[in-house]
Amino acid sequence: MTQHKALLILHGKQALNEEVRAAVGAKRKEGWQLEVRVTWEAHDAQRLVCEGLAAGHRKIIAGGGDGTLREIAEALVLADSRYKDEISLVLLPMGTANDFARAAGVPMEAKAALDLLDVAPSNVDVGDVNGQLFLNMATGGFGSQVTANTSEDLKKVLGAAAYLFTGLSRFSELRAAYGELTGPDFHWRGDLLALGIGNGRLAGGGHVLCPGALADDGLLDISILPAPQEVVGTLRGLVEGGLGIDNMFVRARLPWVELKSTQELGINLDGEPLSGESLRFSIRPGALRVHLPAHSPLLGNA
Length: 302
Description:
By secondary structure, this protein is an alpha+beta fold. The chain has helices spanning about 20-30, 45-55, 65-75, 100-105, 110-115, 140-150, 150-160, 160-170, 230-240; strands spanning about 5-10, 35-40, 60-65, 90-95, 120-130, 130-135, 135-140, 175-185, 185-200, 200-205, 205-210, 220-225, 250-255, 255-270, 270-290. It has two domains: about 5-125 and about 285-290, Rossmann fold; about 130-285, Tumour Suppressor Smad4, CATH 2.60.200. A hairpin with a 2-residue loop joins strand 5 and strand 6. Helix 2 crosses helix 3 and helix 6 crosses helix 8 (about 160-170).
């Protein structure tokens, strides 16, 4: 095994991306032994991670969007404990939103992103909800519905703006959901329009939902947008008037939080749908080593 050896797991949609091909070629000229594997169907990323680790790779590059990143990060965290102190993750943002990468300050250009291979990794936290892991954020309420209902064709045309377009076009469907959240010295219950439980700061194509979140503080950032009857009309007016709604949020920072609802509540886990009436969110401190810029906004020590 060589120090300059890495495996790029690339989302199948990016297989013919010439920018990625050029960036891989450039890193190889710099002395990196860089192998590429392409996903084809569901769960390929986990399988490729396992195969890569067995083949001696300890640096894994996630080439795709937030969903690909979540899948690979989960596979690395759950990998054989023999590899824990050696494996690390590099982000190559190739998706529509790239919410975690953008919040972390990872370059959107392929070559600049791959240059993070030469930066020492940082220990970051990983979120856990009923055994499923996430690196960026779990969202619920109207925001998760927008993410789930934004079509792939629209994302191809509009990019991250597709989420905003879908949200505005579905405003008439705005419905509150009842939820009760309980954590250490924290309790909130009522109707909510949106919920963010974040290790990162952005969701839904670049929208700031958890503005103070850090990925290495051992805590989850909770953001709740309450929904008393008058808020729906107020929210519509704020959006149409171009004003922010940040001061309407209830926020907390907790090592764990339990969410209960009187009906099944839909949650979006970095692109992975999840639902349930009782969910427990917790944090796994420093569970993953990730190559981030030295002054990444998500690193408290930076």
